[in-house]
Specification:
extended, alpha+beta, five-stranded mixed barrel
Length: 327
């Protein structure tokens, strides 16, 4: 027997009847209600944030793509819908994105006539002409079937509970992200190429972190997290300390690469003599006096002991001198 689907009332009273208020005073009522709704949203988000984060960790990463096509924009929206628990919307957008992707492949392969065909015929033809592998075809077919059940809203789909919808949504989403990563991803087998990719990611992440348009980077903190993750994946650098670590202290011989006393806070760039890695250290008032007294300049060798607190991301924050002397 089909499950009852009209047993929950849809309550859509989101706005007050402002016609009851004198027109000259309506704007103040509206602004008051908008402020109240902001608090409702904050409370709703705070209550659900743990579930949102857990769902985020179920989604596979692509790493990075040099350019963003329309199907990638749809894929990003589908991922956002999954994170917030809107599984039906995620299924629909993943399916639409996958269809647009196969049209992209057909056009790129010189098979423009496939664009007007159904997704079923298109992926079968792409496979028969060896333009996609059987594994890619099978994944695209799974996404197609899940999406069709959703968009046609057949009886089987209507009977699915929230957990089943979640399972369908994450399966389709991850199947498609794996296809895109395998066929379009930027990861290479050479350290030089991966380092170039990391530099491009750094530049683009910095731009997106201050952009008014939501792209791949939400804000400065998100930029730091993504760059930490990118350095671990592209460069293989273990840049995250153990979660229980609160403070890191380093000692050694360093070369002074650059001294900048005209910015706030003033800073010095050092290069570790043992491994060649650079580190930027903020200068306190006493440090500046030591630099001036001992005449420390660029190119000099110094023996230092520096300290940094560890951020919530497990990374060092501002480095400060504990000891400093010219060698």
């Amino acid at each position: 027997m089909p499950k009852a689907i009209f047993n929950i009332m849809y309550i859509d009273f989101n706005k007050y009847n402002y016609s009851l208020i004198d027109e000259s005073q309506r704007s103040s009522y509206i602004e008051r209600d908008k402020a109240a709704y902001k608090e409702i949203l904050r409370k709703w988000f705070d209550n659900d944030v743990d579930k949102i984060v857990e769902r985020k960790w179920l989604v596979e990463d692509i790493s990075c793509l040099a350019s963003v096509s329309d199907f990638i924009r749809l894929l990003k929206e589908a991922e956002n819908l999954f994170e917030f628990g809107f599984y039906t919307g995620c299924i629909a957008l993943t399916g639409i994105s996958a269809e647009d992707f196969t049209k992209f492949l057909a056009t790129k392969s010189g098979r423009e006539k496939l664009v007007t065909q159904s997704q079923h015929k298109r992926i079968n033809t792409l496979k028969s002409e060896y333009l996609i592998t059987e594994m890619t075809h099978n994944s695209l077919d799974v996404i197609r079937k899940i999406r069709n059940g959703c968009l046609h809203y057949n009886e089987d789909f209507k009977q699915k509970d929230n957990d089943e919808l979640k399972s369908d949504a994450i399966q389709g989403l991850n199947e498609f992200k794996k296809i895109v990563k395998d066929l379009l991803g930027e990861l290479t087998s050479t350290p030089e190429s991966n380092f170039d990719s990391f530099l491009k990611v750094m530049e683009e992440a910095a731009k997106q972190s201050v952009s008014e348009n939501y792209e791949s980077v939400k804000n400065f903190e998100d930029m730091n997290m993504k760059l930490r993750n990118a350095s671990s994946i592209l460069l293989g650098l273990p840049t995250a300390f153990h979660p229980i670590t609160e403070i890191v202290v380093l000692s050694g011989i360093y070369t002074v690469l650059e001294v900048d006393l005209d910015i706030e806070p003033p800073e010095v760039t050092l290069q570790d003599a043992s491994n060649g890695l650079p580190v930027i250290v903020d200068l306190q008032k006493d440090d500046k006096q030591i630099f001036k007294r001992e005449g420390i300049k660029e190119g000099d060798t110094v023996q230092v002991r520096i300290r940094s607190e560890i951020s919530k991301l497990g990374q060092t924050e501002a480095w400060k001198f504990l000891n400093l002397r010219k060698v």
